[in-house]
Structure formats: structure tokens, C-alpha cells
Amino acid sequence: MMISLRNLTVAVEGRRILDGLDLDIAAGEVHALMGPNGAGKSTLANVLAGREGYELLEGQALLEGRDLLAMEPEERAQAGLFLSFQHPVEIPGVSNLQFLRTALDCLRKARGEPPLDSAALLRAAREVAQLLGLPADFLKRGVNEGFSGGEKKRNEILQMLLLEPRFIILDEPDSGLDVDALKLVAAGVNRLRHPERAFLIITHYPRILEYVRPDRVHILHGGRIARSGEADLAHQIEAGGYAAVLEGTAV
Amino acid sequence: MNTALAVCQSGGWAEDAATLTWHERLAERLAALTPPTRKDEFWRYSRLSACFAPERTGRGLDCPFPSPEPLAGEWIRLDQGRPVASHTRAWRLRPWSELDETTRARWRERLEPGEDFFALRNLVEADAVLLLELEKTADAPLQLHYRHGAGWVQPLVLVELAPGARGALVETFSSFGPSTQNGAAHFWLGEGAELTHGVFTAGDGQALLHRVRARLCAHARLDVQAFASTGAYQRLEWDVTLGKSSTLRLSGITQGVPGGSNDVALRIRHAAPGAATDVLWRGLVPAEAHSAVIGRILIEPAGQRTDAAMRLDHLLLADSAAADVKPELEIYADDVACGHGATLGRLDDEALFYLRSRGIPEAEARQLLIDAFLAPVLQRFTLAEVLRHVQSRLPRPDDAAA
After folding, report:
1. Pick among A94, A100, A144, A160 to test the B interface (most B CBs inside 10 A)
2. pLDDT tens, per residue, chain B with 402 residues
3. Which residue is closest to B362 within chain A, CA to CA?
4. Do A102 and B360 touch (CB under 8 A)?
5. How far is it, in rounded angstroms, from Cα B264 to Cα B210?
6. The domain containing residue B303 runs over which residues?
7. How far apart, in whole angstroms, are the C-alpha atoms of residue A41 and residue A32?
8. pTM score, whole prediction
9. Are A40 and A15 in contact (CB under 8 A)?
10. Which B residues, 347 through 386, put their C-beta within 8 Å of a C-beta on chain A?
11. B236 to chain A nearest CA, in Å?
12. Which residues pair with A95 in a beta bridge?
């Protein structure tokens, strides 16, 4: 199993946001996590990535059998986890190329690999930037500095493609994107689909799932997975809303 | 070429009648003054006591310095405030005793210290007085390397660039024992002259006060590139008066050390029309360190069409770090474009998490953010001599995690 969550219970400022959440995602699978506003979708993403400010009350998260919650954020990334942020932060003064080189070197070092040759990195970064429709001067600019919302999302996908993680959480990769940008982001995700890699796509809308076909769709409600189903579940939500889909579901 | 310069007169000043009279008056004025206190606006945040610690008092002391590192290019070495060796082709070096009375009179007028205690004390007690003159253009920077190691040390350097002359001067400071250096450099930039002024202090744990007073004639340009690594106490001052259509660009970095205190005081006066000032100073303040920057730009009534900007920023690297920052504009002309700003902040937790989430260890992530904070200043540094020192002193990841 790529990721295995058991009874994950997390509070923020004393309030339980996740309450006994169980979830398994096998290698090679793409899962979508949907749910109404405030259901805890981003909380789950942040807890798994190691952001501070969340109180773990109970439960376990194993990434390929390793205790994810015992690791520092960078150790989680080195173990193969990648979070595509809903709101990527701007870091003026750190160029995208410098950032990518540092991140890649750190990940390769953790894997016992030598640093990537600068020319090879530059070639790869330019190719992916072009694929994602990012401007030519992108690599020289500060990380996300002055980027539009769409450019920030595409930058997340660019990092994902270059860093090649094994378990990828995409936190609302479709928010604020026009249809062309959405297709570019989806193409980036599909390019990385692999039998030894897994995805968890957090989204409000089934639109991105038209382009990235999920193996499973889950609805997060009341702090846990309230319902799971095939890809069609996303369309049921679109058609009837969460209340109708969750009707009769005990939480 | 002027090599192995002889040691200047021990008292610094030649004993001609005019200088003696002037010197006596200065001594009388000094006797009536006391060191500044925090009631004085420009010393409001200063932790001066380190300068007057008993182990750092005493005058005219010798110090057994280690063999100096060889310097390349053009240079002057000043030990205990006195020039001991030099190598320069482009600059003319003259001690006060060799100046004619016209030159002496001109400089006595320029050196008027007002009520500044430390400036007066430097003039009265100067270990040596050295005039550096540049007539044309010097391709290589002139390096002034100061070493102090015992008691109070008070070098005085006078710098004059002829109209149209262009050059660079890099002052570096290091200390080797309990001492306070109370030094001064006075710049006179003739019309259209250009001087790039580098300053590097190594933060060796002693006390250092260094004042730069610069007068820019019409169309002159002064480009300051400073890196201050704090000692027990350190104060760097620039007092710059800008003439017509002259330009000051002042860029600096303070790197604090635990337990150290650093002041930067800027007094910039626009005394004629069309002048421009651009100040960018950034400070790194670690645990138990203190940094203060006071910057005042005065636009006199004659300073029409002034363009002045001042930005003073500090990054506090620990809870126990402290900084005081005060930018001021005082404007008496109506056709000006002036702006100033200051920030005190910590490393951005969101940015730190973002970097760590990509596999970058916390120490390296912190260093990336520190580098990013300093980058706008470093991009303005063009002097290789300063950059070389700076790169050797900036914190490495292990330090940043501390």
C-alpha cells in the first residue's frame, strides 16, 4: 500500500477536524477526495505534509509502511510525498531555478544519488516549463513571485514533474484555472501516472476529474470518509449536491 | 609607486602655528564635552559602554600583530591607527606634515566636527593623519586595512578626488586584542568625481566606531557598499552632503553576532538642486544581538528636484534578537520625490514550510530565505574585494539553524 491512514484524528485549536479517518491508496491509483467547505480536506493534506498547527489526537499514517507522522516535513518529501499547495507562497529573491536545484539536490542526496548536472536540470526544467505554458523567463524569477493564480498552480505541477515523488497530494489543483490551464495541469498529472506512484486529488468540482480519471472517489464529511465509490460518484455530487449523495449515510 | 611608507608623526598633526592653534581649540572644546547619551537622538539606541570598558582604554599603545595576510593590488596597512606599509601607483599619499599651508587650511575648514564627541576626540587624539589624493582614474581599488589591538586607536584618513577623477576605496577592519578604534574618513569629491566606497568589518569582538563624512561637489557620485559584522560594539556613520545633481547610492548589510551590538547612523543632506539618494540597508540579527539603524535625509530649501529613497529592513533570527530602526525625512523644499520605509520581521513560516515540503532541510531552507533577504543588497555590490569578504562571512546552513 502506498498510503494507509488509520483512525486519523486531528484537532485545530481544540476542535476535531479529522475524526477517525481511514483511507488506503495503492500504488498506481488515483483517488479523488471531495467534500463540502470546511470538511477538512486541506487539513488532511497539511497534516500529511507536516505543517505545524495541527494536534494529532489519534491514529496513524503510513507511507509505504513508514510512519509519516513521525517525520519532519523535509523527511516526508524525501520519503516520496509531494503536496501541491492550494495557495502556493511567494518567495521573492529565491529564483525558481535555484529552488529547484536545491530541492532536487536534497532529494537526490537523501536517495544516495549524486547531484543532477546543472545543464541537465536546466534542459529538463525548460522542457517542462514549455509543456505547462510557463513564460520563458520563469526560471529566473522568484518562486511564485508575481505569478498569476494559474501560473502558481502550473508551477506546482512543474515541481511535481521534476521532483518525481511517489505519493502526490494535489490540493485543489483546479481552483482559479481557466479550461486551457486546467488541461495543462491535468496533462502534467497524467504524464506522471505510473504503476509505482499514487495520487490523492482534493477538489470541490468534478471538472478536473474529466481529464484525470480517478480510480476511486471519496467524500469527506464529519471528519472521516463518509462515502466512497467509482469515478461516477463525482458526477452524482455534481448533479445532486453533497446532501443528496450523503443522505442516509451515518457519520 | 609609493611603497613601505614611513610611519607618520606619532601625534598625527604637524606642529605649525596654525594647526597648533586650531588643535588647541579643538582640545578645549573636547574637554567641555561628555560622551553622547541616549537622550541624543542619534545615540538613542546605542550600547556604548563597550567602548569605554577599562580593558579598551589607553592611548598610543603598541600591539604585537600577527603577520599580515598579503594584499594584492593597491593597498595601505594601518596598524594601531598608523600607516605602516603601502603599495599604490594611482593614489598620492601624504602625511599632514608634508602638506602646504593652503592645503592644511582647506582641510582644517572641512574637518569642523561640530559638537560630535567622537569626531572631536578623533581629531584631537589622532594617531596619524593621512591624505590620499586621486587626480585621474584608478583602475584598481585602493584597500585600506586597519588593524587594532590595544587601547584607543584613532586613525584619520582624508580623501580628495580631483574633478572628474574616478576610483574605489575599500576599508577593512580587524582587531586582535582589547581595543576600541575610533576612526574617521573624510571624503571630498570634486565636480564630476566618482568614488566607490567599500567597507568590511570582520566582527572580531572588539569595539569600533567609524565615521565617514563625505562632501559631493556638483555631479559627483558616491557608491557605498558596506558589510558590517558586529563586534562587541560597532557603529558606522555616514554623514554625506550632496551638491548639485550629485548622487549617493548607499547599500549595506549588518550581520549581527550573539551578544554584539551594531549601530548604523546615516545623515544625508541635500544642499543643492537635482541630487539623488538611494539607501538600502538590511540587517540580520541573531539571538542576543542588537542592531540599530537611524537614517535621516534632510532636504534643505535649496534641494529642489531631489530624488531620495531610503529603505531599512531587519530580519530577526531568534526571539532574543532586537533591532531599532528609524528612517526620517526632513524636507524644506517643495519640488521633491522622497520615500522611506522600514521593516522588522522574522523568517516567513509559510515560506519555510513550503521549502521544507520540497525536501529541503530546515537549515538550508532558512539559509535560502536569508540569502533571498540579502539578495537585493548583494546585487548592488560590485566591488570584488567586498564580495569576497562577504561570501566568507555570511552564515552557512549550520549557523542558520542555531
Report:
1. A94
2. 444 444 444 447 877 899 999 999 999 999 999 999 888 888 888 888 878 887 777 887 888 898 888 888 899 999 999 999 999 999 999 988 889 999 999 999 999 999 999 999 999 999 999 999 999 999 999 999 999 999 999 999 999 999 999 999 999 999 998 899 999 999 999 999 999 999 999 867 789 999 999 999 999 999 999 999 877 889 999 999 999 999 999 999 999 988 889 999 999 999 999 999 999 999 999 999 999 999 999 999 999 999 999 999 999 999 999 999 999 999 999 999 999 999 999 999 999 999 999 999 999 999 999 999 999 999 999 999 888 888 887 754 443 333
3. A74
4. yes
5. 10
6. 2-400
7. 11
8. 0.88
9. no
10. 348-351, 353-362, 364-365, 368-369, 371-373, 375-376
11. 27
12. A142
Pick from B349, B362, B376: CB nearest A74: B362
- A140 to chain B, any CB pair closer than 8 A? The answer is no
Nearest C-alpha in B relative to A88: B354
Q: Locate the domains of chain A by residue range.
A: 3-246
| Closest residue by Cα to residue A6 from A49, A82, A54, A59 | A59
Q: How far apart are CA A86 and CA B352, in angstroms?
A: 16
Prediction ipTM score: 0.96
Fold of A3-246: Rossmann fold (3.40.50)
Number of domains in chain B: 1
> Does A80 contact B at CB distance below 8 Å?
no
CA distances from residue B42 to B125, B126, B305, B372, B388 in whole angstroms, order as listed: 23, 23, 27, 30, 31
Cβ within 8 Å, pair A91-B360: no
Please check whether residue B18 touches A, CB under 8 A: no
